[in-house]
């Protein structure tokens, strides 16, 4: 007969039985940590600061079980240390599986392996022989769906697939069988019979999630090493569960307003100043908005980070200032690999200070990347991050408006980095096995801190590799996709799951990175991506050109039309970002987040929502000119025609090449931004709000768009009330940012009102004036 003992200290309950020990900590009434010490460092890269708040909870012995309840979540543990989680109504959410796993027999005999290999198939064995391996197996309900996990390929609902958490540079065309890409965000959200839950596995070692692929009776998480350390996330809605996750790992800080505008990139632009100028000039010539141009690796001197190729850029600061005068910012790239070159300052400095990763024998670890033989900053150490951050000033002094960090999985060309390569884990010596998945995180964090210090503005970092929590420091893109229709299709669930995983600021390379785009694909891509938080067209060196004008006037006009649509929506997107800091919900999101009780939303891969009000249903099939759109409950106004459709059904809509079906939830108000070709720091003089339906209320956020003053309350909140048949009003409910709009236009289905700031009044007050 097994026995269970427990001790309580504050909000921590330590359970012991002859099976070992398990520690439960109540962080909030909806977040409980489950921990088992397996002898590894307990620091977290994802969670910063104290997240525990004083929370009363009950402990009860029920038979041979202990029951811990916060009122919102109940956890029961038996002497076998198996654990079950129930919601506030006592419904099961997460139940440890009582049976044994039944692994799929993957081993085939040598003769069969050899004939499969002969045809070129990959034949791999499945090994669980690592001695520090552990697993957590949970019961799977026939009606259970999974979301989250960051940038994984495939579909929105992750059920029946399996994934690895191991940051990796995957150059082959990303397809749904790939188990891992550049990021590891081990957060899983579930809907069990429609009831939401979440688990965040905070372990940076290589881990695996099998979500009912091996067997439909269970799903499991396993890791090759590390402590067992996971957080149970509850909440009365899926939104609340996601919000709890971002409470834990942090939310995206407010971007500068221009970062929501259009950005153009291509590997090769910065091979000559003329090319850069020609791109900037052509955007101006065709009246296409452009906020930033990205400089890929070519701007550097022999791919040495923190240098300029002086043969191309005689006076980098002068050139960048000139580009900025034309309204366009420059975002240069940085890779972690530092060229091994005794005459190169950064290399020498890092070497002298011992800042590079080493082999187990203490010699500096070398591998090949763009610059040839390179060494790798040990970003896990705070002083290395400070050193790197300090050097970011070099690019800022040249006029860079942000930094793009790439190849930080870390990617190398000559074989994989051995897992015992010495990388630091803060102040402790560690290895790649533990630090691989946070290498990009720490590089992005260092870069963010460097930019913040050097500019005082909200930093713009865009990173390829990330871990849970990187959203606090950087926007992300989904890496090297290709100009393929399946990649356009995949970008929607991928970005939706990134959003669910805390990354509100994310995007995919528009047009596709590798391979050659087509006029139709590029057109559909800009349409599909036009509401994605990060809006960047990027392509590879050898790929066919994919600037908006290269396919002639028809594609150009459509492209421009959608960029205009984007700029109309920038105030709405900015409002979503401001809101997101409080509610922790993504800007671009799957329908299931807003309508989890509607089973139709749970496997919807080709539609997404922007906040709560806008539904986007792009055409992502070659040759298609109409499509079915699933509208959830409520009424929806087609933005193109202003026709209202009843929801909870599929409708068929026309969508010729120049059209994107967008629906606005009826009875809502949207801000409607002004068209500009470049954004600047000037406060807007006026703002327009549009009513969709009969009446609506809206909270609009305004600040300077670039500084951190909003943290001290320097922002304004406007409460907008619009009624088609009745009174409309605008009230400033928070006035912390001095400039307010001088004029506000309210556009209703049947009339337009213009309100002006009453100059005589002390507090900002708006009165109706003649249009
Ligand atoms: C990687 C990046 C890509 C970049 C290229 C050259 O493939 O993912 O965006 O253009 O490196 O730096």
TrEMBL record:
SUPFAM superfamilies: (Trans)glycosidases, Galactose mutarotase-like, Glycosyl hydrolase domain. Keywords: Glycosidase, Hydrolase. GO terms for molecular function: carbohydrate binding; hydrolase activity, hydrolyzing O-glycosyl compounds. The keyword Hydrolase applies. It comes from the Bacteria. The keyword Hydrolase applies. Pfam families: DUF5110 (PF17137), Gal_mutarotas_2 (PF13802), Glyco_hydro_31_2nd (PF01055), Glyco_hydro_31_3rd (PF21365). GO terms for biological process: carbohydrate metabolic process. Residues 253-575 form the Glycoside hydrolase family 31 TIM barrel domain. Residues 22-210 form the Glycoside hydrolase family 31 N-terminal domain. Residues 584-670 form the Glycosyl hydrolase family 31 C-terminal domain. Gene3D superfamilies: Glycosidases (3.20.20.80), glycosyl hydrolase (family 31) (2.60.40.1760), Golgi alpha-mannosidase II (2.60.40.1180). Residues 687-748 form the DUF5110 domain. InterPro entries: DUF5110, Gal_mutarotase_sf_dom, GH, Glyco_hydro_31_AS, Glyco_hydro_31_C, Glyco_hydro_31_N_dom, Glyco_hydro_31_TIM, Glyco_hydro_b. Belongs to the glycosyl hydrolase 31 family. This is Glycoside hydrolase family 31 protein. It comes from Bifidobacterium apousia. The lineage of its organism: Bacteria, Bacillati, Actinomycetota, Actinomycetes, Bifidobacteriales.
């Amino acid at each position: 007969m097994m026995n269970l003992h427990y001790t309580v200290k504050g909000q921590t309950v330590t359970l012991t039985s002859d099976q070992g020990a398990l520690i439960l900590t109540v962080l909030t009434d909806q977040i409980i940590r489950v921990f088992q010490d397996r002898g590894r460092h307990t620091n977290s890269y994802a969670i910063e600061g104290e997240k525990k708040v004083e929370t009363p909870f009950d402990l009860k012995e029920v038979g041979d079980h202990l029951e811990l309840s916060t009122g919102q979540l109940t956890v029961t543990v038996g002497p076998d240390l198996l654990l079950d989680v129930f919601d506030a109504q006592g419904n099961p959410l997460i139940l440890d599986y009582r049976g044994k796993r039944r692994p799929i027999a993957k081993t085939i005999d040598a003769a069969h392996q050899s004939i499969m290999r002969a045809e070129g198939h990959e034949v791999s064995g499945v090994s669980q022989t690592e001695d520090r391996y552990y697993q957590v197996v949970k019961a799977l309900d026939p009606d259970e769906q999974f979301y989250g996990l960051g940038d994984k390929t495939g579909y929105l609902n992750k059920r029946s697939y399996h994934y690895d958490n191991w940051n990796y540079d995957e150059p082959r065309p990303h397809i749904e069988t790939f188990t891992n890409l550049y990021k590891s965000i081990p957060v899983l959200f579930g809907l069990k019979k429609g009831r939401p839950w979440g688990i965040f596995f905070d372990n940076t070692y290589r881990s695996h999630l099998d979500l009912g692929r091996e067997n439909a009776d269970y799903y499991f998480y396993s890791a090759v090493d590390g402590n067992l350390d996971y957080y149970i996330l509850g909440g009365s809605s899926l939104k609340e569960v996601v919000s709890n996750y971002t409470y834990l790992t942090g939310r995206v800080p407010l971007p500068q307003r221009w970062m929501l505008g259009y950005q153009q990139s291509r590997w090769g632009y910065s091979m000559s100043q003329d090319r850069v100028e020609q791109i900037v000039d052509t955007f101006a010539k065709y009246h296409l908005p452009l906020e930033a141009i990205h400089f890929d690796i070519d701007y550097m001197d022999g791919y040495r980070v923190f240098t300029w190729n002086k043969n191309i850029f005689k006076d980098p600061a002068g050139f960048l200032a000139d580009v900025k005068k034309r309204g366009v910012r420059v975002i240069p790239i940085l890779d972690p690999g530092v060229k091994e070159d005794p005459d190169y300052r950064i290399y020498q400095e890092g070497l002298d200070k011992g800042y590079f990763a080493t082999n187990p024998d203490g010699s500096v670890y070398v591998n090949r990347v763009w610059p040839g033989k390179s060494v790798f900053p040990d970003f896990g150490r705070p002083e290395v991050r400070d050193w790197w951050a300090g050097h970011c000033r070099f690019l800022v002094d040249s006029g860079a408006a942000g930094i793009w960090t790439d190849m930080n999985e870390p990617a190398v060309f000559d074989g994989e980095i051995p897992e015992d390569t010495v990388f630091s884990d803060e102040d402790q010596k560690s290895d790649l096995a533990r630090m691989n998945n946070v290498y990009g995180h720490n590089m992005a964090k260092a870069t963010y801190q460097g930019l913040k210090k050097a500019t005082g503005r909200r930093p713009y970092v865009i990173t390829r590799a990330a871990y849970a929590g990187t959203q606090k420091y950087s926007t992300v893109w989904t890496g090297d996709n290709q100009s393929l229709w399946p990649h356009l299709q995949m970008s929607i669930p991928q970005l939706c799951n990134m959003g669910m995983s805390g990354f509100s600021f994310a995007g995919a390379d528009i047009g596709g990175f590798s391979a050659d785009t087509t006029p139709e694909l590029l057109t559909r891509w800009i349409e599909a991506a036009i509401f994605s938080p990060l809006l960047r067209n990027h392509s590879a060196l050898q790929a066919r050109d994919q600037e908006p004008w290269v396919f002639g006037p028809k594609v150009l006009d459509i492209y421009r039309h959608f960029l205009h649509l984007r700029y109309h929506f920038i105030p709405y997107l900015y409002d979503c970002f401001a809101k997101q800091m409080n509610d922790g919900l993504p800007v671009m999101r799957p329908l299931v987040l807003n309508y989890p009780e509607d089973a139709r939303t749970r496997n919807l891969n080709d539609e997404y929502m922007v906040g709560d009000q806008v539904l986007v249903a792009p055409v992502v099939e070659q040759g298609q000119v109409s499509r079915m759109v699933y509208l959830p409950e409520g009424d929806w106004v087609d933005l193109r025609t202003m026709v209202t459709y009843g929801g909870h059904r599929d409708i068929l809509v026309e969508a010729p090449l120049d059209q994107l079906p967008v629906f606005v939830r009826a009875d809502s108000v949207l801000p409607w931004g002004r068209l500009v070709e470049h954004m600047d720091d000037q406060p807007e003089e006026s703002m327009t709000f549009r009513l969709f339906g009969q009446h609506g209320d809206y909270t609009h956020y305004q600040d300077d768009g670039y500084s951190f003053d909003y943290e001290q309350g320097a922002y304004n909140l406007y409460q907008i009330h619009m009624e088609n048949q009745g009174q409309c009003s605008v009230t400033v409910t928070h006035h912390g940012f001095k400039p307010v709009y001088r004029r506000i236009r309210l556009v209703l289905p049947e009339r337009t009102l213009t309100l002006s700031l009453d100059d005589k009044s002390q507090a900002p007050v708006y009165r109706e004036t003649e249009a």
